[in-house]
Sequence to fold (361 residues):
Amino acid sequence: MQKEDSNFLKACRLESVNQIPVWFMRQAGRYDADYRAIRQKYTLVEICEHPEVCADVTRMPVQKLGVDAAILFSDIMIPIGAMGLPFEIRENVGPIIASPVRTREDVDRLTVFHPRTSLPHVLETIELLTSDLRVPLIGFTGAPFTLASYMIEGGPSREYARTKQMMYESPAVWGALMDKLAKMIVSYGQAQVQSGASALQLFDSWVGSLSPEDYATYVFPTMSYIFENLRSLKVPLIYFGVTTGELLSQFRSAGATVIGVDWRVPLPTARLRVGHDVALQGNLDPALLHAPWPVLENQIRRILDAGMEYPGYTFNLGHGVRPSVDVNVLRRVTEFVHEYSARHFQSSQVMSSSAKDGVIS
Ligand code: CP3
Fold:
């Protein structure tokens, strides 16, 4: 089967599928013993610098879980290092930046790099993967607000106080930072697709901390620019953030073609907000992966019943897989989504052909 005909890419293009495609955000990671063993030998950044190892880590969830798409193993911070801002990923904390971006000079010092020269290993990994993966590969980048939040705060944050302070107090500096990140994201996204990625996901994990008005003023123009410039690549452009229920209509008008929904927004509500000409992806609460199976199954059914109402739906979590999840649960969820949705599509086909034959009037 050609990757173009895969259920994942069909769902992203709003075409009909014979079963609902599944992948999990953070599907490669610490819940998996083989990943932990590789991490004994390499840091996360070192994995990314070794294309063979990085490709193996990317393939693991496809082989073990039977998911319908692979996501490049990398981190949203990798291109930030290439912009000349050193970072460290601290276990159970997240990205740490020793010299955060606070002034116009700090922004001006960031370099707009050429992915081929500065991140050749990322593109080599993609090339390795696309030659032998049987499922589409999703490339990704962080989105400007979320990247800026790490760059300005110097690490993870709850309030994003300094980030918002720069936004409100120095809009010109904020604008210059958004512009630089947007240019980086466009060229990095283009390079990933040119190397073989079949879709791109933009992670704006923390943008839900903004009000809809502030999103419209301080972020929307940058996101529109990015989607406008990535559109000609003709691959699905997935846009995701946490607690972004009130921003979903703007996600759509910015130009995303697939909207990632977190678990706080029921899919029918998300549909009302984004309309029917974009695809949806989501939205199981990752905490449910620890629930007893009947509870979990019930919630998956509820999500699938809503998701399958319209073409253009991919099953995923509402945020990333946690390190404590049991790999067998992920496998069982994947199988259940496939089987349940395949039965649904088979019976609706029988219904419509019987109706045509006059069996059901
Ligand atoms: O399988 C995949 O999804 C691909 C790999 C991937 C990683 N990071 C690897 C990783 C992806 C898509 C990301 C994106 C990412 N990184 C986001 C957006 C998605 C989200 O979860 O909201 C964000 C905000 C980051 C920044 C970051 N990097 C965080 C918050 C952490 C976790 C820190 C911790 O220890 O809990 C990281 C580290 C990281 N990136 C890990 C992995 C597998 C875990 C640490 C490790 O293995 O060393």
User: Anything to note?
Assistant: The chain has a mean pLDDT of 96. Residues 25-30, 39, 44, 71, 73, 75-76, 89, 91-92, 94-95, 140, 203, 205, 320 surround coproporphyrinogen III (CB under 6 Å).
